[in-house]
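Ticket opened by: R.M.
Priority: normal
Category: complex prediction / small molecule

The reporter submitted a protein together with S-adenosyl-L-homocysteine and asked that the result be attached to this ticket for the collaborator who will pick it up next week. Submitted input follows.
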Amino acid sequence: MRIDIITVLPELLRSPFEHSILKRAQNKGLVEVNLIDLRDYGLGKHKQVDDYAFGGGAGMVMMIEPIANCINKLKAERSYDEIIYMTPDGETFNQQTANSLSLLKHIIILSGHYKGVDERIREHFITKEISIGDYVLSGGELPAAVVSDAIIRLIPGVLNDETSALTDSFQDNLLAPPVYTRPAEYNGWKIPDILLSGHEKNIDKWRHEKAVERTTKRRPDLLK
Ligand code: SAH
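Result attached by the on-call engineer:
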């Protein structure tokens, strides 16, 4: 898979991809992440990427030309399955969307800034708009990192124990059950006996029950 992220702040995005699972995924050649500096497509001597909003009002708007030139160049090199714009008014991101995006080959993620991008970009280039929740951030970089992380960990071979993504919250409409590690007793607080029983079937059953219990209590909407 190849993810091209268009941003005016590539440095802000570098670190999340240089550690842990996301780094390993790239080292294994399972995903290629390219941070594309929109400034390189900026106009004039000052590499301008934003301008005042037509009609007035506070806040700058990202111009159509730099983004169009950047996307057109990428599209000339390969075909893209989705061109995604991160935006608070997009569809709310969830595990299901992560699952389907993880099956794609080439995607572009456009991070906005200021008041957002010229609407014509959204009308003519963008194929999917994603929000990471009902709040407004200052830029699309953190949202792009969130979406990329959720997608990349689902690519087969990325996680060491491949079943581990399958037992995460939301994967089967259930929240994950509680987990414990050593010591088995701390400060008089013991872990559930069943986890020490060595009886795999009973442990699976217990975990399932706990997952249902937790989901019923915290997110009954998932069980519908
Ligand atoms: N004026 C816009 C918000 C712009 S915020 C509005 O009211 O909808 C600046 C940029 O941050 C956006 O272009 C978008 O790329 C990113 N952004 C902010 N909040 C986001 C969210 N919840 N999900 C995804 N992207 C977001």
